[in-house]
Specification:
This protein is mainly α and 329 residues long. The protein has helices spanning 41-44, 50-63, 72-99, 107-118, 125-137, 152-158, 166-176, 178-181, 184-191, 193-210, 219-245, 266-271, 278-283, 299-309, and strands spanning 4-5, 104-106, 313-314. 51% of the residues lie in helices and 2% in strands. The protein is globular, with a radius of gyration of 20 Å. The N and C termini lie far apart (45 Å). The chain crosses the membrane at residues 52-70, 76-97, 109-130, 188-210, 222-244.
């Protein structure tokens, strides 16, 4: 049997900071030096992180070709890969497992979920988890990477565009994702982020180009698979994830009193695989289920329950497992 992975729950959320037990570095670092206010002119004067800005721009440009390369095969690739990379990779893997330790699983399953999350295009597991743990530590306060209080578009997609420097980024990873930094496979996935997307695009093109036996074939079909299975799919997963950062801190209703602006927003809940019930999540950050009312649809939690039934995951955290419950709104 594969070696089991026990998440370090001491690194994972409340009460208090999401990384409350992580010892601060003793030496003065770039991250300890005061940064310009978020979305301020002085922040933008630091320059643009062109690799990230170029990556996001390239993916959106590829998606613009969608009307010219529509095929049902490409649409199927879009749906299947959206579920695989969005629901399984980002929501289940990056968020509920690696960031918050909402359940436990075998190491190969953990690595597979991290690989699928990487194919979402939202960065490696290490970077994603570090930023999200910092978000919970400072939610809608100074230090939150993406609060709408600093601007709606900032929280949606501009917060990762300014150039903060390599030393600052390394300190972010060391401080907020030390458990993942010790995992050699996670480090490999971190460095293979771009090659994995090139390989994914090549596989999609090959399926379309050589797939005559399944009704495909030719360069046009190859590009259809790339445009829909890579470009359109990544743009969709990008924005439904980013709506959790922006829209669910702006609009919706609250089931619980929290110290931030988190809200439950039905359409983000539906589009983002169950992640839109954000007030529930901020009230009970380690709980695997983000939909707490019968009408709050959470497809990712259903998959977790199915995996629990067959023994792929265990120790699924439920509301009843949290000793100090949140106060109803």
């Amino acid at each position: 049997m594969s070696e089991l992975h026990e998440s370090d729950s001491a690194l994972l959320d409340p009460p208090g900071s999401a990384v409350k037990s992580v010892e601060a570095p003793k030496r003065r670092t770039a991250m300890e030096t005061p940064m310009p206010p978020a979305n301020s002119p002085s922040m933008w004067k630091r320059g643009i992180n062109w690799p990230i800005a170029g990556w996001i721009g390239l993916v959106h440009v590829i998606a613009l070709f969608a009307p010219f390369y529509f095929s049902w095969q490409g649409f199927v690739a879009f749906v299947v890969l959206s579920l695989a990379t969005g629901s399984l990779g980002v929501c289940m893997g990056y968020h509920r497992l690696l960031t918050h330790g909402s359940f436990k699983t075998f190491k190969p399953v953990r690595w597979l979920l991290a690989f699928l999350g990487g194919l979402s295009g939202e960065g490696s597991a290490i970077s994603w988890v570090a930023n999200h743990r910092k978000h919970h530590a400072y939610s809608d306060k100074e230090g939150d990477p993406h609060s709408p209080r600093d601007g709606k578009w900032w929280s949606h997609m501009f917060w990762f565009i300014p150039q903060l420097g390599n030393e600052w980024h390394k300190e972010l990873l060391d401080r907020y994702a030390p458990d993942l930094m010790k995992d050699r496979v996670m480090l490999w996935l971190h460095w293979l982020f771009l090659p994995s997307h090139i390989a994914c695009g090549a596989v999609l093109f090959a399926i379309g180009y050589f797939g005559t036996a399944i009704g495909l074939g030719g360069a046009w079909n190859g590009w259809s698979m790339v445009v829909w299975g890579l470009g359109v799919r990544m743009v969709y997963v990008f924005h439904v994830t980013w709506f959790v950062n922006s829209a669910t801190h702006l609009w919706g209703y609250r089931n619980y009193e929290t110290s931030d602006d988190s809200k439950n927003l039905w359409w983000v809940g539906l589009l983002a695989f169950g992640e839109g019930w954000h007030n529930n999540h901020h009230a009970y950050q380690r709980v695997a289920a983000q939909g707490h009312k019968w009408w709050e649809f959470d497809m990712t939690y259903w998959v977790i329950l199915a995996m629990e039934k067959v023994g792929l995951v265990w120790d699924v955290v439920r509301v009843k497992d949290i000793p100090r419950g949140a106060k109803p709104a």
